[in-house]
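Ticket #4471: structure output looks truncated?

Reporter: J.K.
Steps to reproduce: submitted the chain below (177 residues) through the standard prediction queue, then opened the result file.
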Amino acid sequence: MAEQTQAVKVKKQLSSNAKKVIILCSMVALLVLTGVLNFALNSDWFSGTQQTGEISDGDAVETFFNTYRTSRETARAEEMSYLDAIIASETSTDEAKATAETMRQDLLNNIEAELVIESLIKAKGFDDAVVTMSTNNVNVIVNKSELESQEVAQILSVILEETEYTASEVVVVPYTA
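Returned output as attached by the reporter:
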């Protein structure tokens, strides 16, 4: 009888470990897939055109902002996948699931706020901008080589209206190619 109980415990433990391995392998596969897609979408692999090696300043700026967004989206997708795995796992504690759900909701709120702020900054007349929000601050990179104090004030105004961050928690950086 004791041997049967021990065999059941070992079987459950193996099952739990097997689930963890499957989740880990899935996450690694997603990471590889995002890397391949990132490479494919940032190169002219799909269109069949060849790069001449010459990149104008406009292309460099556009590439920077597109690459930044792609990298941010990839990192967020990985984080979201990790949180979803914790929430869906039968072996996760209720506390871990609740924490993961809270973190997932915070991440979704940040993603939405970043998109809104980027659109509002563009509406103020800037060519492009990327915004990244964390728990401590908001980072804004604007497609302009130099910013006047009036322009920084415009950007700061948008962020203060759309978020609960203070002015000292906002970092505005001009992008210089």
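Triage note (M.O.): checked the attachment and the full token line is present. Residues 2-42 form the longest helix (41 residues).
Status: closed, working as intended.
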